[in-house]
Amino acid sequence: MKTIILALATITTALVAGLFYAFAVSVNNAFAxxxxxxxxxxxxxxxxxxxxxxxxxxxxxxxxxxxxxxWLNARPAFTRRSGYILAAAVIFIIGSFGVTVLAxxxxxxxxxxxxxxxxxxxxxxxxxxxxxxxxxNWHLVRTIAGIAAxxxxxxxxxxxxxxx
Length: 164
Fold this sequence. Notes:
Number of domains: 1
Strand content: under 5%
Distance between the termini: 22 Å
Shape: elongated
Largest sheet: none
Number of strands: 0
Low-confidence stretches: none
Helix content: over 70%
Radius of gyration: 18 Å
């Protein structure tokens, strides 16, 4: 059971970190060149599309599986492997999951409430800037945290399960 949970925790962490990384190095770069109305419209569409079963299983599963893997691997004795898993769990839960829930999702919700239909060019620019700058900054934090958690999980998977 310990090995299966470790594998599932690593896989879900990799899926979320990979999504965040891909978004950071491709989607954000593509969106940067869009006019304000197109940027807002496309971002609103992605924020709706991302809430799907495949994403939710990995995004909600990773913190649960990481915490469970940390607990299972710390018993009966704390090892170097369990230390890596615990560090990965803390980094992911705070830096990826927590940042998403406390920063990115509220920004997404604010943007969702905005209608581009009758907005002036100045208003479109103001809304885009008010969204994009903090959202991209928080996205960078959650991407780095996700990658760090993944590296720690890979280290845990490669670590012999001996006392530290």
